[in-house]
Amino acid sequence: MTWLKRAAVAATVATGALTACAPQGDLTVQRELTVAERIQLQQAEERFTRACMAREGFPYWIQAPLSVEERQGFGFVLDDVGWATRNGYGSRIQQRVLDAKKSNANLRYRGSLTKARLARYTAALSGGPGAPVLSVALPAGGTISSLLGGCQSKAQEELYGDRETWFRVDKIATNLSPLYLPDLVEDERFSTALRAWSRCMGRKGHTYANPSEIRSALPRLTKGLTSAKAYAVEIRLAVAEATCARTSALADTGRALQREYRDRASKPYTADLALHSRLEHAALARAGQLTGTGA
After folding, report:
1. Which of 158, 249, 252, 258 is the most exposed place for a label (fewest CB within 10 A)?
2. How many angstroms separate the CA atoms of 179 and 20, rounded?
3. What confidence tens digit (pLDDT) does each residue in 245-256 have?
4. pTM
5. Cα–Cα distance for residue pair 221/281, rounded to 1 Å
6. What is the total count of domains within the chain?
């Protein structure tokens, strides 16, 4: 993956739903949800899905989510030295995710079903062959589609209201980064900080032009090593990257520029982003009532 593509992914991961500054009134965008609040929303959606599937006559198992700690560290550059010291680049976290997917009770259950019952299960969960298809045009071009049907759709309706509206504004809010990242990474302020980061890494014995090169090099650097030694290499590089991200101000510069460019690029979508924000906060209140954590 190229440096720019990694930055695009990181921008979405790091900020969740990207929001913009907006005027007061109906176009006000509320504060960004925390990682813990996003976990709460995801778990509430899973609980609504489970209840719906039970009504359809099928079991549904809720998987344990990644913790707040496990979700940290993902961005265009690591700058949390403590997290890097504990987790490196998160390879062991990623392995736990893969292992959890392999042992997923829902997948095992699907594998036990007859062809006919599997078709009924799939229709109950995500909509059958005749389910309507939602499509939305993305800000940077192209479209994304989803079936409108099944318990997963109903769970989102429980949380966010009208599924079509939520699908539209959510895909707009979370796909703005391609509009501005090409310009951001060409900004001289970013280039200056990136060069300072690279010089800092060089002084530590690591010659890399950008953080993406480290991720690309890791498989080669750890090939043939024991798991423990490979992890030690990962930790050493991650700590160096995070330390240099702080001393070079690359992380702070990147975040400041992201806010600047994002706010500029998102102006045509102010109404959609304000609606997305209102729906998210309303959903959080519903999730709090469901889990007993609401006001």
Report:
1. 252
2. 13
3. 999 999 999 999
4. 0.82
5. 45
6. 2
Cβ-Cβ contacts under 8 Å for 48 (sequence gap 6 or more): 151, 154, 155, 158, 159, 290
| Helical spans, DSSP H, in the chain | 3-15, 35-55, 68-71, 81-87, 91-102, 105-112, 115-126, 150-160, 163-173, 177-184, 188-203, 211-222, 227-247, 250-265, 270-291
Tell me which residue has tokens 């709460």: 40
Residue 224 lies in domain: 1-28+177-265
pLDDT attached to residue 176: 95
Mean pLDDT on 61-84? 87
Query: Are 9 and 148 part of one and the same domain?
Result: no
Taking CA atoms, 193 is separated from 26, 247, 258, in Å, by 38, 10, 14
Q: What is the pLDDT of residues 198-224, one digit of tens each?
A: 999 999 999 999 999 999 999 999 999
